[in-house]
Amino acid sequence: MTYQDTTNEIAxxxxxxxxxxxxxxxESAARMRLQNRFPTGLDIAKYTAKIMRQDMEAYDADPAQYxxxxxCWHGFIAQQKMISIKKHFGGTKQRYLYLSGWMVAALRSxxxxxxxxxxxxxxxxxxxxxxxxxxxxxADARELGLMFADLDKARExxxxxxxxxxxxxxxxxxxxxxxIIADIDAGFGNAEATYLLAxxxxxxxxxxxxIENQVSDEKxxxxxxxxxxxxxxxxxxxxxxxxYAFLEMGVEDGIIxxxxxxxxxxxxxxxxxxxxxGDLGDQYNSYLDCEEVSPEDIKxxxxxxxREGKLLRPKRLPSNLYQFRPGTGEDRCVLDGITSLQAGADxxxxxxxxxxxxxxxxxxxxxxxxxxxxxxxxxxxPSFNWxxxxxxxxxxxxEEEGKDVSAxxxxxxxxxxxxDTDLAAEADQRIKTFQAxxxxxxxxxxxxxxxxxxxxxxxxxxxxxxxxxGEEAMLGYVKQVQREEIRQGIxxxxxxxxAGSDIGDDHKEYFAGEAAxxxxxxxxxxxxxxxx
Length: 532
Hints:
This protein is of the alpha/beta class. Helices cover about 50% and strands about 10% of the residues. The strands form three sheets. The protein has an eight-stranded parallel β-barrel, surrounded by eight helices. The mean pLDDT is about 95.
């Protein structure tokens, strides 16, 4: 509905209720309604799921139409990110949010900083989703509030053309609310636990849930050692549980991202159940590291498999975990990807040990031989040393081409001594185009960075502390922070406005009229930034 339609509709409601509602102003109520266009998290999930589905179709038609996100560990971080995107690019198209389980564990747990091993409270995940969207909705309310103020000024000046322009801008306003891909880890328990948590996350606003095929009670960060996968049927039960949750909550087009950690996981906790040769359980077991034994070799407590008439003993560790054969990770990833999509997942996430388009693309090509429209979400992880990785990739490519690389030490390419070299320039160019190249050549629909705002917060705080507590003192803040905020047009330089002071003043005026005690008067020090 348009601004005027909303106002007219509310006016009818007020009139219908007679004298008790006479003090309610229809236009003020309409403004409040427009400033809160998503009354519930489910409204957000339904709205954003449609956006993401449209983006997936656009990518299928043209791989240049890939999407991106940054991980956010606080609502304010997400809010400032989306305000920045709208400011610099004019809209939010193909830009999402990512919620990282790692950052929830490290930054948002009541236990304090934790490793990424699913030890944090499961309720902290939907709580953060709700917080992220609360801040994005507040960004809408703030920006629309400024537009309403401009509309009032135009009316007071008798400028009808400007008033119509602003009203049209209000009618066509683009929200800061965008899709979120939210990390549900390995489900925090069995399929029922996964279903229950998925419902909470969807209620909070999540339209896309990412789940991984690790053991939930011994889950590890994707870039650490000691990862333990589960048989396919166990994982598929959780995929189905999430789909049931989406359907129950009325988000029929919700998105499931199935993550496989098999490339780096050399262990499994259990031998898969199998009924007949070649079924999925048998395929999973075929990757186990086994030795053929004869009856006289049987030892107390041994576990055995039979395959093709042979008696096989899987290698079992003192932890009671079973080992996969070395070198089987890529094949297991491909099987995981194919079967996850066949079980109802919409997108795949393949966790890799390095950002290498050839490696990723090779696996995707094999998956697409079975499922032609398979698409990936990819972690452009800060756990990768991007500079060293890409400099080594260039070094290897040049060496293979027969170029002279004697001036470079491959093991020390991270050194600042190489920063101004041709090799470093070529590596940086490859990093710059990595996302577009991988979207085109490796089926990557969505590129995200899991932990960027964790690192930027640490870096900016270090720089401020060094300057403020050092020789620059107050100049360290003014020169490096406030002056740059003003010159770059950072919205939160007017931090009272960003925190909702002007919205509060509007409400006071709606509720109390001339009796309103407003904060935004002539003595408000934020007026010093009026020209900022």
